[in-house]
Design goal:
single chain, 153 residues, mainly alpha, 4 helices, rod-shaped
Amino acid sequence: MTEEAKEKSAEAAEATESQQPEEAEQLLPDGIGLTVEEVRAILQRDHKTVIPADDPALMYITIMNAALTEQAKLQKVHEKALGKLMGEYTNKHIEETKKGMTEVMSALSQLTTEGINKAVQDMVKFKQTMFICTAISFVSALLIVIVFILKGA
C-alpha cells in the first residue's frame, strides 16, 4: 500500500469513526453483540494477534451488530404478529367451545326432559296396563268362584 493510500485510508477511518455512534450503542439492549474492543481483545487473547483499531476487517463487527439489531426488531414484529394470531385463534377456539358446550347442554337438557316425560308416559301406560290386568284377574277369579258354586249346588 502506498503512503498516499494509507493516508486516505486513515482519513476515511477517522471520518467513519466521527460519524459512527459510540460502540455501546451498537450493542443490543439484552447484551447480544460485541464491541470492536471486545473482538480485538478476544483475537489478541485467543490468536495472539493484535489488530489495529482502524483495521477495515473490524467493520464486520459493526455490520454484524447492525444485522443482530435488525433481527431483534424483526423478531419483535413477529412476536407481536404471532401473539395477535394466537389471540385470534384462542378467542375463536373459546367461542367454538362455548357454542359446543351450549349445544351439548341443550341436548342433554332436552334428552333429560324428554327422558323424564317418556318415563312418566311409560309409568301411566304401565299403571293402565296393571289396572287392566288386575281387572281381568278379578273377573277370572270371580268366574271361577261362580263356576264352583254352580257345580256344587
